[in-house]
Design goal:
The chain is α+β, with helices and mostly antiparallel strands. It is built from seven helices and 26 strands.
């Protein structure tokens, strides 16, 4: 074999190897399609007071919980307000929410969201007082306090007012300090489960095969369409965290069922790439009914005691525009289906009815999910 022939064979081999290493455009990393058991956020919630508002707070007569909370806070500070008529409008009762990240340590900070609970007009310029944030178990995990930043605003005058965004909600960046940790020793575990964000049997098996090919021994087992169990192999140089770090960069091709998602309220239609249609003919007609009211006034004759009456005049016009019968061939792709239906010049809401009719006829190989 000549040097030129060897060079050509080498280049062909390298091209084939590159083709096997380059992931397809629709492939994804394992870390982007699964959640790891125990690595999760925890939701926190608390009730507090925002002070310093410029007259846009709760009306104490309309929000008795704000008045009670304000009195209780002042009493804890040694101020007796029992029997007094409190009329301040610079205080608002709010609900404070936050997400406690996984493995968050004591002393670290997290962002919090603030939302008005009473009839406050705006939280602009307000300051959240010390607010305990509790988890679902009733324990306090963080303490929130700070200046509230809002995205909207409100301005009003004697004859007009304007509101932009939602001025009764806000956010405090790094506004809470974590006081309690959620104990979960991931590194000491011998096994962990991977939960698929979009459950599918094919995807679950592909993930297990990719992991086992990397490790070189049976390490991952597809339990069901939503779970892959990962076990630390014997002789592995590291703990379960090291194993997860090694496999989360693996690239697999997620599979999906043929599905069409329809939101009838907004007329939104989303179709997956696996949607297929058998041979079917589609026709759609538009029926337009126009009703015009032109009432006429009937005047009585002069020198009579008659009264002027209004006589109704109604015109009804019905116009029906029939479109041509379109043939959708068997096994067409999603793009061909969309192009064919768009060629009929139909609206999204008519398209919803057509898709449901094709499904009823048994010609649509896809699941229709109505939101």
């Amino acid at each position: 074999m000549t040097k030129l022939s060897k060079f050509i064979v080498l280049m062909i081999g390298l091209a084939g190897l590159a083709a096997t290493l380059v992931a397809p455009s629709y492939a994804a990393r394992i870390k982007d399609i699964v959640d790891i058991e125990g690595v999760r956020e925890n939701q926190l919630v608390g009730y507090g007071l925002v002070v310093g508002l410029n007259g846009t707070g709760d009306g104490l007569n309309n929000s008795p919980f704000t008045k009670q909370s304000l009195q209780a806070m002042l009493e804890r500070m040694g101020v007796n307000t029992l029997g007094t008529n409190m009329r301040t409008a610079n205080v608002a009762a709010v609900m404070v929410t936050a997400n406690l990240p996984a493995f968050a340590s004591q002393g670290s900070r997290i962002d919090v969201n603030v939302a008005a609970l009473g009839d406050s007009k705006s939280l602009q310029g307000g300051t959240l007082l010390v607010t305990p944030l509790m988890g679902a178990d009733g324990e306090v995990y963080a303490i929130a306090q700070g200046q509230v930043a809002i995205n909207g605003f409100q301005a009003s005058g004697d004859g007009a007012s304007i509101v932009s965004g939602v001025p009764t909600t806000g956010r405090i960046s790094s506004g809470a300090i974590i006081e309690r940790e959620v104990n979960f020793a991931l590194g000491s575990r011998r096994s962990v489960r991977l939960a698929l964000r979009n459950p599918d049997f094919t995807t679950s098996r592909r993930i297990a095969l990719a992991i086992n090919n990397l490790i070189g021994m049976p390490t991952a087992v597809p339990v069901d369409n939503a779970t892959v169990e990962l076990t630390l192999p014997r002789g592995f140089n590291g703990n379960i965290v090291d194993l997860v770090t090694d496999i989360e960069q693996l690239v697999v091709t997620p599979d999906q069922t043929a599905k069409i998602v329809i939101d009838e309220n907004s007329g939104i239609i989303v179709m997956g790439r696996e949607v297929r249609v058998s041979t079917v003919a589609v026709a759609q007609s538009n029926l337009t009914v126009t009703i015009t009211e032109t009432p006429e006034a009937n005047q009585p004759n002069p020198l009579t005691l008659g009264e002027t009456v209004v006589l109704p005049r109604t015109e009804v016009d019905v116009e029906q525009v029939d479109s041509k019968l379109a043939l959708v061939e068997e096994g067409v792709t999603l793009q061909e289906l969309v192009d064919g239906l768009n060629a009929l010049g139909i609206s999204p809401r008519d398209l919803i009815a057509i898709l449901q009719a094709i499904k009823s006829a048994g010609a649509l190989q896809a699941e229709i999910e109505v939101m």
